[in-house]
Write a structure and sequence with these properties.
By secondary structure, this protein is an alpha/beta fold. It has eleven helices and eleven strands. It has one domain: Purple Acid Phosphatase, chain A, domain 2. The chain has a six-stranded mixed sheet, with helices on one face. It has a five-stranded mixed sheet with strand order 3-2-1-10-11. α1 packs across α3 and α1 packs antiparallel against α10. The longest helix is centred in the N-terminal third of the chain and has 43 residues. This is Metallophosphoesterase 1. It comes from Gymnorhina tibicen (Australian magpie). It is found in: Endoplasmic reticulum-Golgi intermediate compartment membrane.
């Protein structure tokens, strides 16, 4: 009888330790699950599709039939084998995968556009490294049959103009079914895909082919937008497209002097805003920009490349939105654009992803609390309740 009681007493500290250890495991697991999984749902759940003109007066069925829901993101920069550290890869790719998959599940877009620089080292990649990068991309950015994914080429995918080769361009085209001057029409909306790296204007083989396709597409779109009663012999045999002003999708922004006029919390840092942009490197040349505006007379231009947000009005009427980077490696506050688009109108809304600084703050606060709990448990740190109790008992004894 006595021996069994003594065994029970000895087992009590062990049970308490195991119970405390279990509590610590649950605490650490909860923090990890929230910061690495649930936080994406909490943040993206707050994003809402913007209303487009007339959309507020339509029924839900009419809206889904006439309004195209598009997500636009840019500059994912998947790290390669040369510059990419394995831990950096693991962290950044997990963040982008969770953000993308959560956005698809919660927002259910019709189409997703990625505006170039999908890879960080596509301009250098060997065939083996390229295949590995593509495999990782397809895993991270997998999508359901109800959603379409369209990828635009960027300078990090095929190199700047002096690095660009037909081999690299064809390699990218084969994977993503991309060609410059390609037209995508969805729900009566015309999207023009542009290889902005090939807009150098120096007559290189890739540039000449790309510009020829753009000119032909421009002619086709212009013929389709002419009045029905207006006869034009040059348009008699041209395939008619939906009579909708196109939206240009490209990697490089059109020419602007700098980001000095850009505003917003995800615009360029103050110390970078007044740095002049270099033509054909930071932005397209003035000549190439004027060509695209003249050829297509777009109602909207969407671009990436600068990693920061900006809104510019060209020729006083054509808005261009520079989409910031989708990767936490380039920004503390990545985001993507949500667009509700019809053949005659559009409305855009930005959806911010979790701020990395806030995630680190949660981890630091949880780590500090964990240390306090452990020290209190091993009695190296006196809990406040017992400290106050001891003060009261000493006061009574006096």
């Amino acid at each position: 009888m006595l021996s069994s009681r003594s065994t029970t007493v000895k087992n009590l500290p062990l049970k308490r330790r195991l119970c405390f250890l279990l509590k610590l495991v649950c605490f650490v697991s909860s923090v990890l699950i929230f910061c690495e999984f649930l936080i994406y749902y909490v943040v993206i759940f707050q994003c809402r599709w913007p209303d487009v003109k007339g959309g507020a007066h339509m029924s839900e069925k009419e809206t889904s039939a006439s309004v195209l829901k598009a997500i636009i993101l840019a500059d994912t920069h998947l790290l390669g084998e040369i510059k990419g550290h394995w831990l950096d890869k693991l962290r950044r790719e997990w963040q982008m995968e969770r953000s993308f998959q959560t956005a698809l599940w919660l927002l259910q877009p019709d189409i997703v556009f990625i505006l170039g620089d999908v890879f960080d080292e596509g301009k250098w990649s060997s065939p083996q490294a390229w295949a590995d990068d593509v495999r990782r991309f397809r895993k991270m950015f997998k999508y359901p049959v109800s959603t379409e994914l369209v990828v635009i080429v960027g300078n990090h995918d095929i190199g700047f103009h002096y690095e660009m080769t037909t081999y690299k361009v064809n390699r990218f085209d084969k994977v993503f079914n991309f060609t410059s001057g390609k037209l995508i029409t969805r729900k009566g909306i015309n999207f023009v895909l542009v290889n902005s790296v090939a807009m150098e204007g120096d007559g290189c083989a890739v540039c000449s082919t790309s510009e020829a396709k753009l000119v032909a597409l421009s002619h086709k779109l212009n013929c389709s937008q002419q009045k029905r009663n207006h006869s034009n012999k040059g348009c008699s045999d041209v395939e008619k497209l939906p009579d909708s002003e196109p939206i240009l999708l490209q990697h490089y922004p059109l020419y602007r002097r700098s980001d000095a006029e850009c505003t917003g919390e995800d615009s360029a840092p103050p110390e970078e805003k007044n740095i002049p942009f270099k033509e054909k490197y930071d932005v397209l040349s003035q000549e190439a920009s004027q060509k695209l505006l003249w050829w297509f007379q777009p109602r909207l231009i969407l671009s990436g490349h600068t990693h920061s947000a900006c809104e510019v009005l060209h020729a006083g009427k054509v808005p261009e939105i520079s989409v910031p980077s989708f990767s936490w490696r380039n920004r503390n506050n990545p985001s993507f654009i949500m667009g509700s688009i019809t053949p005659t109108d559009f409305s855009l809304q930005k959806c911010f992803l979790p701020f990395e600084s806030r995630v680190f703050t949660i981890y630091c606060a949880a780590g500090a609390l964990l240390v306090i709990l452990v020290l209190a448990h091993v009695q190296l740190l006196t809990p406040p309740f017992y400290f106050a109790q001891r003060l009261i008992s000493k006061h009574k004894a006096v």
